[in-house]
Amino acid sequence: MSHGATDFVGKPYKPQIILHRVASIIHLRETAAMINQFQYDQLTGIYSKEYFYQRVREFLRQNPGKRCDIICSDIENFKLINDVFGVAAGDQLLCGIAELYRKMTGHHGIYGRLNADQFVCLLMHDGDYTDEMFIGASEQVNALSNARSVVMKWGIYSVEDRNVSVEQMCDRALLAARSIKGQYGKYFAYYDDKLRDELLRQQGIIDSMEKALGEEQFLIYLQPKYRIRDDGLAGAEALIRWKHPDWGFQSPAEFIPLFEKNGFITKLDQYVWDKTCSYMWEWDDKGYPPVPISVNVSRADIYNEDIADILMQTVQKYGLSPSRLHLEITESAYTENPNQIIETVGYLRDLGFIIEMDDFGSGYSSLNMLNQMPIDILKLDMKFIQSETAKPMNQGVLQFIMELARWMHLGVVAEGVETREQLERLIETGCDYVQGYFYAKPMPEREFEELLKVQPAGEEAWNREKEEFENRYQSQVLLVADEDSGYRGRVQRAFSKYYQVVEAVDTGSALGYISIYKDRMGAVLLSNALPGGDSYCVLKAVKEEKGVWDLPVIVTGPPDIQYEQQALELGAADYADKPHSEESLWRRVLHAVKLASFQKRERDLQEEAYRDHMTGVLNRRGWEMAVRALEREDAPFAFYLFDLDNLKQINDTLGHIEGDRLIQEFSRVLRTRTRRTDILARYGGDEFMVIMKLMKSEKDILKKGEEICHAFSNIYFSDQLTVTASVGIAVWNAEDSAEEAIKRTDMALYRAKTNGKGGCYLWRE
Ligand code: C2E
Ligand code: CA
Ligand code: CA
């Protein structure tokens, strides 16, 4: 054995004993391999989190008197780097950082990887740390990545109290690092009493929030908005205040960000919306002018699927029209996830709520996106106003923004107006409304009511205002194609309040207008005796043209069954006998337009019915359709059933918003790591099914599964836990039923899970 044999078995052999010994040797090897895996981080080869903890514990025990520090690093924009440069580049960066730690710490300390992009080391205390040290380290890290924009923050915990667990020490160092997140020019921070108090205070806020809501400690203050044109009161913004019995008034700037993080904001905002509507109802009852009030809608609210229902129910509960409630949505929300925001906010706007883009000018909304955004009013950010009004007139962008707003038919509110100079400047540029200390500070509801009471001629100004908002629908075009100028004139008069009416005198100009106004065309009134050839050719052209085929066309002509039949067969929405009253024409148009919009909505719904709302991949129904449509030639298919291991835990500890984010992250990983032709579906809450076609080798099939799970565990990280996905895979040759294959993936997933989280298992008979 001293020459390297693994074992010595005496003869004569006893098969039973040999079997036993071989088995135990294999077992030993596997355990050793496992220990190895446990000790070292797979990606970077440095100590894993657990092993780092263990080593530090040992070190501290053996060196009770030594002063040392735990230093953690965290990359602020790692997710971005992963997204922009790819996971491989992200991995490479992480390996580079591990190398840096190796160089920095060497034999004098212990180092390891905590989480995705978080590293840690224990160093002997050797004087104070300086910015230069960390700037140097940052530079080295940036040299590693082609991004060259890695922002790293460092946190230091000086080990004094040895009763604190190593895990806690690392947590604290990380908290210190996180406390300077977003602070330019800050490279490192200590975990000290100040930070501790701050964190305790935050915890205190979180611990008392539910009780505060129940006890009505939250109050709503209203800050008036004024119309510049005539100095009239134009509404108000509802701002939350917290009057805590022991701490006194708390600033929303302090508690709102915490509530946005833990999800409580959705509850609080609904409370504000409800209270605000109840005030308006009360004022209406007292006969005050019906001013609108703006409420803040936090981004978490928009991701709430029920937001439209909740808002609708709130206004209906108090018998208000949705246009009384203005919704302020911060600019940065729009840039974060533009498509989803546009969809949800667009829907709210369709329901009649007035949408204000809050804090405009503070973020980076690109101006060319602006015309796609469903908004009615731009609310210029306070800082923007203050810096712009300080510049000479011709140097700022204020004038340009104002013109842009005009051109897009948006109202403009300036917030944070504090001085007469600022106000004068805003008047010059043509701003519509102002809100700021110069006029009034936020005030309790009773005080605001006093302002309302003394509002003169509110009604009239309000009607004008309302009309302006209704104008946005006016941009729809109604085409009247008719040979009779008297008839065209009557239509013009009857509909001009609701439509932009365009007149065509022959088939040629009718077709021309349809193609010019394609996107804005609401309905067509087509005479069957239009000069310039067969007037039904206009109808045919509409029905055959891709962009306008669902445009309602109402044919007009003499009472004649045959004409009518022909028109309807060609797809006319209606046939109106001439002569007719304005009233009856009006009804027919309304009916046709409504019907067309219902049909469109129905088609959209049908398409929606097969998609999972949250992730955009197929839902269970869509999946079943897709499986039925699989082509035999594309076999063999690999069926993957992914399951997120920690969703419940995340939901329970970090809240549902975070849980939803996890699900969306995963669908994104799936999308970037599959082909266009692959089928992706959300199969259940945290289960995803993927079918890949023409997958010939088991090796490739497995590799793909592992790749996805690996990418996911790398992309998503939270401080408290690492998240993983497990996958069960089965190959389907289209010989038995798809149900059988699904059953096999299910069993494979079960196996994967019993082998530990984050596993990958391919079913073999
Ligand atoms: P915001 O929506 O941008 O609100 C405007 C903030 O500017 C308010 O601060 C307001 O009091 C302040 N302000 C108004 N005029 C002036 C002025 O002339 N000068 C200065 N220096 N400040 C002015 P507040 O009430 O402290 O609110 C801070 C932020 O908290 C709000 O910013 C908003 O983001 C958030 N917030 C407040 N209430 C709610 C709420 O009910 N729901 C949500 N989701 N967020 C809220
Ligand atoms: Ca606001
Ligand atoms: Ca604002």
UniProtKB/TrEMBL annotation:
What GO biological process terms are annotated to this protein in UniProt? phosphorelay signal transduction system
Superkingdom field: Bacteria
Q: Where are the membrane-spanning stretches? A: none
Residue span(s) of domain EAL: 202-456
Fetch the PROSITE patterns from UniProt. Answer: EAL (PS50883), GGDEF (PS50887), RESPONSE_REGULATORY (PS50110)
**Where in this chain does the record put each Response regulatory domain?**
477-593
What Gene Ontology terms describe what this protein does at the molecular function level?
A: cyclic-guanylate-specific phosphodiesterase activity
One Pfam family name is EAL
Q: InterPro entries per the record?
A: CheY-like_superfamily, Cyclic-di-GMP_PDE-like, EAL_dom, EAL_sf, GGDEF_dom, Nucleotide_cyclase, Rev_trsase/Diguanyl_cyclase, Sig_transdc_resp-reg_receiver
Task: Identify the CDD domains for this entry.
Answer: EAL (cd01948), GGDEF (cd01949), REC (cd00156)
Residues covered by the GGDEF domain:
66-193, 635-765
Function as written in the Swiss-Prot or TrEMBL entry: May play the central regulatory role in sporulation. It may be an element of the effector pathway responsible for the activation of sporulation genes in response to nutritional stress. Spo0A may act in concert with spo0H (a sigma factor) to control the expression of some genes that are critical to the sporulation process.
State what protein this is by name: Stage 0 sporulation protein A homolog
Organism of derivation: Wansuia hejianensis
